[in-house]
Write a structure and sequence with these properties.
By secondary structure, this protein is of the alpha/beta class. The protein contains 3 helices and 7 strands; from the N terminus they run βαβαββαβββ. The structure holds adenosine-5'-diphosphate and magnesium ion. Magnesium ion binds next to helix 2.
């Protein structure tokens, strides 16, 4: 399933993230694609809140993954500095589980090692505050209504 959501402020993006986060059931892997400033981390902020976590969200710039605790363990990763597919694959395998959520920024780089049926969110910018979220939801995620 393909869906499109548009927002016109960072707050609206967070709100969209909260709605999406509240529907996750554990085990989901979400790939976030978009240029710097697109709103990946802003969306993650909403997702994490929607998963019942009050943890502070920041870009995983110096660490590969940040971990937050909510309804599930949330791994927020950025693999752009890891160039070894085998290593990334191993790291991912350790993070993905039924009681975790894996959120990947810059996943374009590592898409070849992601599970085939992950959720993909591609963000494009329209003007200063407009953002379009193109969401690809494989069949098995039909419980996520947006
Ligand atoms: P990324 O993680 O993709 O680099 P961030 O979420 O860190 O992006 O930054 C997004 C920037 O764009 C923030 O400065 C935010 O205030 C701004 N912004 C403006 N409009 C929006 C919007 N509709 N959704 C998300 N961010 C927005
Ligand atoms: Mg970011």
């Amino acid at each position: 399933m393909q869906k499109e959501v548009k927002t016109d402020s960072p707050e609206a993006t967070e709100e969209f993230g909260r709605r999406l986060g509240a529907r996750l059931q554990g085990g989901e892997v979400i790939e976030l694609v978009g240029d710097v400033g697109a709103g990946k981390t802003t969306l993650v902020r909403g997702l994490v809140a929607g998963l019942g976590s009050g943890d502070h969200v920041s870009s995983p710039t110096f660490t590969v993954c940040n971990t937050y605790n909510g309804k599930f363990i949330i791994h927020h990763c950025d693999f752009y500095r890891l160039h070894d597919d085998a290593l990334i694959k191993k790291e991912l395998a350790e993070l993905i589980s039924e009681d975790s959520i894996v959120l990947l920024e810059w996943a374009d780089e590592v898409v070849r090692v992601l599970p085939k049926d992950h959720i993909r969110v591609a963000i494009t910018t329209n003007g200063e505050d407009g953002r379009t979220f193109a969401i690809s939801l494989p069949e098995r995620y039909n419980y996520i209504s947006l």
